[in-house]
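Hello everyone,

My group is preparing for a crystallization screen and wants a predicted model to guide construct design. The compound we'll soak is zinc ion. Before spending weeks at the bench, it would help to have a computed complex in hand. I've included the protein sequence and the ligand's SMILES below. Output in structure-token form would be ideal because that's what our pipeline reads.
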Amino acid sequence: MALTQYKQFLTTNKIVPVNNNDGEMVKRVGSRIADAIGRYYQQQGLAEALEGYNWEFNLVESKEVNAWCMPGGKVVVYTGLLPVTQNETALAIVLGHEITHAVAGHGRERMSHQLLAQGIEVAGDIALGNNSQTVDIFNQVYAPTAQVAVLLPYSRQHEYEADHYGLIFAAMAGYDPREAIPFWQRMAAMGGEKPPILLSDHPADADRIKKLQDLMPEALKYYKPGN
Ligand SMILES: [Zn+2]
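Reply:
Good plan to model first. Here are the tokens for the complex, ready for your pipeline.
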């Protein structure tokens, strides 16, 4: 279902080409993070968890401040996010975070909860993909777009886990994890009446910043500047 939805999303949105600096940056940062995740899972003896992952990173034209990763490694960054990330390192922080949600199966968990809550019986992948209700839930979980009325926020625990491993993956990819603090502070400053999508499902409050600070010493152990 992820692959179908991803292809559909790309055909209905304008992809920024790789001969554009930003388009190239998204692919470059993305593949560095993906490499780091591959190495981390290998080291942990969990390489099979990434089976079926076929990474793809695309920057699409959209004012939305958002980015997401579908299961299978299909990633989208919206151009509206770049004025907030401001630099390559902060982009690596966001990608590390979003990709962790995918590889840690957070979306799958949220999707099962939602299916249960709506009384939908899971009769197999094919049945799921053909059911418009399940496609709606899929979109609410994986690809929050302006067309989706309901946003499903990540739980605190999922957020914490995505921050934790996201920092480690960014650091392993050669990006300074400390950039996460000013980035999430910039995100928090964008709250208010109509917060960006990324903020709606990833609350950036004082608690998050505090936890990021607590995670920093561990993340910095993985960071070798100049990689
Ligand atoms: Zn998150």
